[in-house]
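Hey all, quick one. A colleague (J.T.) asked me to put the GCB job into the tracker so the inputs and the structure tokens live in one place instead of scattered across chat threads. No bug as far as I know, just bookkeeping. Sequence used:
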Amino acid sequence: MASVTTSSGIIRKNILWLSAFIMAVLIIPHNAVGQDNFITNIQNRTTQSLNGKWKYVMDQYETGQIGFSPIYRNAKPKDKSDRVEYSFDYAQNLWVPGSWNSQKEALYYYEGSIWYRKTFDFQPKLKNSRVFIYVGAANYKTTYTFNGRRLGYHEGGFTPFSFEVTNLIKDKDNFLILGVSNSRESDYIPGKVTDWYNHGGITRDVYLVEVPQTYIDDYFLYLDKASLNSKKKTIQGSIQLKGKDLPDHATISIPELKISKEVKLDENGAAKFTLESGKLSLWSPENPKLYKVTLKAGDDEISDKIGFRTIETKGKEILLNGEPIFLRGISIHDENPIRRDRAHSIDDAKLVLGWTKELGCNFARLAHYPHQENIVRLADEMGILLWEELPLYWGIEWSNDKVLEKAKTQYSEMIRRDKNRASSIIWSIANETGPTKARNAFLTAVAHHVREQDPTRLLSAACKKDQAVDGHPDSTYVVSDPIGKELDIISFNEYLGWYGGSPLECRKKTFVIDYDKPVIVSEFGGGAIQGFHADSLTRWSEEYQEFMYKENIAMFDRVPGLSGMTPWILVDFMSPLRQLPDVQDGWNRKGLVSETGAKKKAFYILQDYYKRKKKEYQK
Ligand code: GCB
């Protein structure tokens, strides 16, 4: 009898679970793959920080949003006989922003879901405002809920998202619950395998934001290329409002340029405009001049600091403000090696851009995904040009239309965030992806999408080079990737002396580039343990890396149209691919600076080369 009761009990229980699961699937709105309409220019909005300690509940089997009591309901037992199988109140804390892996030993290798809860009271700072939650980034997929209601989800680990809570927020005891999963899937961007650490969690700032009922949702200001050579410069711009009661005009002012212009908004709250300026100081690495721009419309007013420059190519040259420039660059990951965490603060940005400047760079490649906004804004102030990219990296499902949609959304988000930054000059659409029919079609669609969103910047991709191509001797590397026709700059990664071959072979190599376009060497390098000294043919020694840099740099002088380089990489970075004991120990050692901040010998080789290059271009 007992066993009969038990098995029927199990059946009943399973039926209940199943129906709850079906209900959940039907009821939960699957409304967003990602969204490209977050609140922009968050630094200059009215905000309340939600950073700090958040309670967390683990959800390794990702069942937290199904069943009778999804975790985001924040339930507590009503009485002593009630059953709730989780508790935020008695849970431990995680710090936001920050990756969970770097905060608890037990979470070091954790990949799965964690639900975060923040409770707070709310005192409006603006009258009659609309209220949003803004998340700078959470890796990789986030289910966002507020006061017990599931509102949607965002996919993509490196771009911001926001969602409105105006009708749900109370004066007291609000609870914001975000379920973040850093599981790796083959239809994600990036795909399953990367050469960097899969830092999980809420990795960037979280804010509560207030805006007026109708607010300035987006704007874009840039220097008109056609006016570059005239005394009076022209700024092109656009503005977009969002809300019910759209005003009929907006005012754009740049006091330092004596500009104040009223522009007529159309019935959708949008306008394109042209601003005539007198003497304008062009933004450049030598003169990173930013102007305060204020936009007003209805009850809203927002300010930004914007630099004005042009960027274009002519034959094999890159022209900044009409002048040829050599991009003395370095690749960077968005990580603070000392904290072993994703970078998220202005101090983190200062640390890496400080080394970048010391190296003599005027350019940095923000690899391989959108970095924190602080670094882009700091680059604007310090005069460092930027290459920005998405993780369209190894192992992408090129034939999957849903993945293409995700790529477009992630690009839209990155462009929406950074398009007013003068430092940002290149959108790169891929890294080391082999040309196949499906990949070419995918990347061509991405290239068109990016140009549609932002026609002012240059497009590139870190391609591969080939050897033993018909009609060429073996000593020749050929760059002939068909995606090159969609790009403004041809870039390639090259590791002679590290992946195959000795550094000495660099002396024999020549290059054929199939396009009459400027060229960037987007990667080269090799690993070294800082402090390990040996002869220049002993792997992992500083001397080996130094020798490789000397030989590679000399070889690149033979690349036709070479207009810049971003060696791999500024700082050693965490990577589960790199497991050689006592050498790598989970770190990619190709940094010119170690994870403790000590410089390796190759740092000075590159620094010398960049000194020479700078002089050459000053002539
Ligand atoms: C590459 C990849 C980069 C790797 C690097 C390496 O080509 O683009 O993500 O980290 O090589 O160290 O092998």
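Adding what we noticed when we looked at it: The pocket of GCB is lined by residues 195, 368, 431-432, 493, 523, 568, 588, 590 (CB under 6 Å). The helical segments are 2-27, 346-358, 373-382, 401-418, 437-453, 542-556, 601-618.
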